[in-house]
Amino acid sequence: MSRDQGIKMAFDMTTMFRPNLPPAATPWEEPPDYAFVGGNNDADSIPFGSLAEAAVNVLKREGKSLATYNLGGSPLGYLPLREFLVDALGSRASMAVDPNEILVTSGSLQALDLVNKALLTRGDTVIIEQATYGGMVSKLAGLGVNWLGVDLDEDGIVPAHLEQLLQSLAVEGVTPKYIYTIPTVQNPTGSVMPADRRREIVRLAHEYQVPIFEDDCYADLVWDGTRPPTLRALDEVGGAVIYCGSFSKSIAPALRVGYIVADEHVILQLSTLKTDAGTGALEQLTLAEFAPTHFDDHVERLMTALKAKRDVMVEAVEREFGPDIHVTRPKGGIYVWLTFPADVDTGSFAAEAAEDGILFNPGAGWSAHPEWGKSRLRLCFGDATPAAINTGVARLAEIYRASLS
Ligand SMILES: Cc1ncc(COP(=O)(O)O)c(C=O)c1O
Fold it and tell me: 70-294 adopts what CATH topology?
């Protein structure tokens, strides 16, 4: 073949992809009318006016620092933002933190990746909550890690079951790499673990020498404001808990700013795995300018809006689905979790619902054991309007009932 002929041939890039990639994404489409999936926030509550003002002020003052990676400062993140977190975690979560114990990340998704990268090897075992964040389950699957699901009740992890799992793993000679928990506004069940139970989980972590990975990204959104101390704060012996949080749920997910809190030597190790040359500086600068004066008031307003939507969602589910389907009344956050009779597979009517513009998360993907989760589903009420919640839930209930016949 001459060189000219070669240039005219179409180049098939797909033949170059390495094996075992996930299926390619489908092109982006406008979200349908009733997208009760994802962890999106209430659009009307985004404080864009104050964020814009903060961005202008901080850029006028410090704009020249954009010339340097990490704004010319520490790779752990913009110091004033870490100092805000020190204050906020101290006052809101009773957790004493030093700025050097914080690594700012690109969303808490990156926090999950960094901790996983530091701790996990293919074939390792971890303990996760029976109902849990689907994003974490798929990460663990991708890493070839085994997991066991620990039972939950209305207060979160059941300590007796956790102990049973730890004991039986110890008998098998397996030390799990961590216990992953979302103790405050659990995703998807919405429970808030009381302080005593947190102490018990921390005690078990020390007894069995298994670290805790505490994911607290909804913790600012507890309706009645009673946020218990973090597990990390309750770890009096110390060293057992890696904590992560996020501004996604308290301010805006598109900002992509999260953070890890851990002992300094752990943070320094994790920082070597963060190879993106720093989380977006504009976001960090803006948040650091905005948060000290606006965060508390903003979160107060956001919670009022979200709580009203929670009420609309719970009432709509109870009205439209009837008494056979249990719906949680979450203590905060943006999700409700529905439990159907055991023989129902909520995945079986997901495609039909999608054709009608209704998206939900079938429970199998949000559970340690798909078989346990398949009779459940998750609905997000964060960004849907009350009208969309009422109409979408009514239609979803019709589709569910039709699927039974
Ligand atoms: C429990 C949990 N952890 C982490 C994340 C990731 O959030 P982000 O990367 O936006 O901080 C989410 C998102 O919904 C979540 O529910």
Answer: Aspartate Aminotransferase; domain 2 (3.40.640)
